Amino acid sequence: MIPKPVILDISEWQVPNQINYDQLAKQINGVIVRVQYGSNYVDNYYQTHIREFQKRGVPTAVYAWVRGTSYHDMEQEALDFYTRAKAFQPVFWWLDVEEQSMSDMRGGCERYRAKLKQLGAKKVGVYVANHLYGRFNLDVTKFDGLWVPTYGQNNGQYTGANPTATTAYHIHQYTSSGKLLGYNGHLDLNRLAKGEWAFFFGKTAQSKSSNQFELSTAVYLRQAASEKAVAIALLKKGERVQVESIQIAEGYVWGQQKRKDGHFGYLALGEMIPYGKYI
Asked: What are the GO BP annotations of this UniProt entry (predicted)?
């Protein structure tokens, strides 16, 4: 399943000319955009991503991969991050801590956090890899939010695999293989595990998106996400279907529809066109 509200994090790996922002924006409730990889590398498309999502009403946060090698360097990265993103008024600022760039990561990340706050960032959180959580020993109590990844099967769905390093996380990145309408490649998807939506993404309603899908051709609604599954009904071209969640099976993106009797039906929304192959 893909839990709601849907939180996407995105970077230059998702190229704008390969994204249908109108479609993708309707599938998500919030987005976190990468701004930089250390001070010296600026994400090529962060401004485009932010503008495109913001003009479609998607609450937008930002993140920066942390690479500071000294306390001074950490503060400089914070300054560069703030300078590059402040004009967009992001709803939240996140440090992405995935490598040991200095010996005292605890102290260095605290300098980074404090500098962002001093500059004017109201809410600052930290993303830290599950397997590095103990080693880095960050003082997460000083941050406004904690974001931790654990993928489990990493099949594009949330399968119940949760972070093991701590239970104090607010946002859980549960896959790097997510699939949503509007982009044919893989996406990082996240769920809100703890806390209030409004605190992390502002007052925009979680249910902003109608999640309705208008059929451009007739499609069978089936009992399972398979062409071999029993057909429940033939849906006509032009019908609008309320999609609860999506999943990948047999080369198709399938939408899950809740029926009046409480059971679910599945319809193929389109073919999955990958940008590569598994080897």
From this structure: carbohydrate catabolic process; cell wall macromolecule catabolic process; peptidoglycan catabolic process
Element (H, E) at 117: helix 105-119
Domains and CATH numbers, the chain: 7-201 (3.20.20.80), 212-271 (2.30.30.40)
Strand partners, 62: 33, 93
Distance of alpha carbon 250 from alpha carbon 56, whole angstroms? 32
Of 226, 232, 222, residue with least CA distance to 252? 226
Assigned token pair, 39: 């001070």
pTM for the model stands at 0.76
> Rounded distance, CA 144 to CA 194, Å?
12
Give 1-44 pLDDT, tens digit per residue.
899 999 999 999 999 999 999 999 999 999 999 999 999 999 99
Which residue type does 104 have?
D
Residue 53 near residue 14 (C-beta atoms within 8 A): no
Cβ neighbors of 110 (< 8 A, separation 6 or more) are 138, 139, 142
- 12 — phi, psi (to 5°)? -65, -15
- Beta strand 30-37 with 245-249 is unpaired
For the chain, what's the residue count? 279
